[in-house]
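S2.1 Query sequence (2-dehydro-3-deoxyphosphogalactonate aldolase)
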Amino acid sequence: MRHLIAILRGVEPHEAAAMAEVLVDAGITRIEVPLNSPDPLTSIRNMIAAVGDRAELGAGTVLTTKDVAAVKETGATFVVSPNCDVQVIRCTKTLGMASYPGVFTPSECFDALKTGADALKLFPAGMAGTDGLKAMRAILPAGTLVYAVGGADASNFAEWAAASADGFGLGSSLFKPGMGVADVAERAAITVAAYDEVYNG
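Output C-alpha cells follow.
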C-alpha cells in the first residue's frame, strides 16, 4: 500500500464521490475530508458509498471527541488531527478507527504513541524540515510510521524519503476548491508516479 493520504479540504458533497473515484483509480487509496469543509460528514458518506470497497475514508482536522464520534457514525475508518490531543486519540482507538495525530516535538510524538496512535503526522512538515525529521527519527521507536504533511509534495518526495519519511498527506498539491475532476486526476497521476519512483523504484 502506498503511504499517501489525499486531503480534500473544501470539497463539496456533490463532487466528493467523483473526486474519490479518480484518486483511487490513480492509486491513492486513503482519502480524508477535513471537518472544516462544507458538510464534511455528507462528503465522507458519499465517498464511502462510491469507493468504500477499494479505499479507506476518514476525516481530518478532528479536534474533539464529539467530532470523533460523529466521524465514526459515517462509517469512516480513520481520524487525522493537526495536533496531539490524547483524548481524541484514545477515543478514536476505543471506537476502532486508526489514529493519525499531528505532532511537531518529541514530547508530542511520545504522547501520541503512548496513547495508541497508528502513525504520526509531522505538521507542519515544511517548518520542521527534513533535518527536523532526521533528528526526531533518531529517538523514535523502530517501526514508527511518520507522514510528512504541509510542505511535502511530488517535487520533494526524494528529499523527505532520504530523511526517513514513510509517507505523505497531500492537500493543495492534489486538490483545491474549484478544481475539476480532470485536474485532480492529472495531479494524482503525477503524485503516484513520483511516489513510486522514490519508494518502489
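The radius of gyration is 16 Å. The beta strands are 4-7, 30-34, 56-60, 78-80, 98-100, 102-103, 120-122, 146-149, 167-170.
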